Amino acid sequence: MKIFTATQIREADAYTIQHEPISSLQLMERAATACAQWLFRHFDARKPFYIFCGMGNNGGDGLAITRLLLNNGYKATACIVHHSNKASADHTANRQLLEQQYPQSIYDVAAVADLPTLPPKSIIIDAIFGTGLRSAIEGWMAGLIHQLNDLQTRHTLVAIDLPSGMLADASSAHMPVVHASITLSFEVYKLAFLLPENAARTGQVHILPIGLHPDYLTQTPTRFHVTDAHMMRTIYQPRQPFAHKGTYGHALLVAGSYGKMGAAVLSAKACLHAGVGLLTCHVPQCGYQIIQISAPSAMCVTDIQETYSSHFHESAPQTRGLQQYKTIGIGPGLGTATGTAKALEQLLEQYRQPMVLDADALNIISEYPFLLPRIPHGSLLTPHPKEFERIFGSSDNDFARLELLSRQAVSLQLYILLKGRFTAMACPDGAVYFNSTGNPGMATGGSGDVLTGILTSLLAQGYAPKAAILLGTYLHGLAGDIAAARMSQEAMTAESIIDCLGPAFLQL
Fold first, then answer.
1. Domain 2-221 adopts which CATH fold?
2. Annotated binding site
3. At the top level of CATH, which class does the domain 229-236+246-507 belong to?
4. What is the pTM assigned to this prediction?
5. 321: pLDDT confidence band, cut at 50, 70 and 90?
């Protein structure tokens, strides 16, 4: 699914109005109907509704929703917020329709003191400002936003299109913004919904189709996308009947150190369960028996150096043997000892195909930044936010960090995955994809090591780097969702994600 800017969304509305054809008022009615039907499914008619309507088209949506609620036997009051002396044409038309049918349903708000007293457990609908807002709300309207947020602790607050005060395409982290329990938006995600700074403001986001013209949606280019099952099914490559283990590649996993061999085991098991043909694990000598017992399907070689003890990596795999590997995954549980950093430097000099770098491999690069441009083009980096900051620097807000992520991916010609609720994957061509699967239960030790194994496996099987990072991240999150459904978010572990990779593949 594409993510459009506020400008593109307005263009999509205009294109639909012109080419369907349909009037703007009829398109507004379609949006209001989609919202009202959602409300009918989730709230019964005993709940009182208070719809706060601004003077623009977002307020017009709210007025139409009020009328539809009343038509279906709900108790609803339109609280018209007079933040401007001028109303949009569609707002005016919907107010007139509401006044004709339900003249007692309109309540005017021109100051914070005008707020009505709400019965317990009311449903508050925020339809004050939509995507047209371009700056911070000020004056008495800021006070109104704060008052609505206070009410949200005792009532359910539903935002229409966008929580009022939030900017669709820029940071509003330090602005007055409605804190919605639920956001009902239209047709496509807005970038603001996918960034951590807005998580407490959007609540649960539901994207409602309203029939925007498909030609605009398919033909309009955009940098930002949300992955979905349809996209993954176009990427996924089913197994061929005459294939053999060599068909699906030989991967090398460089991982583990004393006390952190669990990370190597998790990554190895995930790599195997994601379908790699052959896997060799390169571990320090202390990890030999652990890998052989825990992942018997994998081969194991150990670090040849003995000068620093058998607990850490001190050498890269031998150069002559590197070419047998379709790709290399490096980092889980690796440690950051000086000898390990030197081994990583040797590996980057010797192996020039796309690889996967995670965890301590990234921590080493943050300490030795001259290694960053030596990473082979097309490689996959998988930092969490702190690892990303240590390598690339801090940002003022999530939007700025997203732009930094994209710039670095283009500049270094790497695929950089920034972990989070909607994991962002920046590509060398400037495109950014947000992953749609996953849940908070995956915030557990070893989850990232599992992802490294999956990505390494898909690269080894011949998936292009972009396909590998999109499909691998989606499968990782989908397996986590299946695990959470089976055993709860609280009880699941990284091993649970591995165990559910099979059912995740079956869904594709």
1. Rossmann fold (3.40.50)
2. 57-61, 126, 130-136, 161, 164, 263, 333, 384, 419-423, 448-449
3. alpha beta
4. 0.95
5. confident
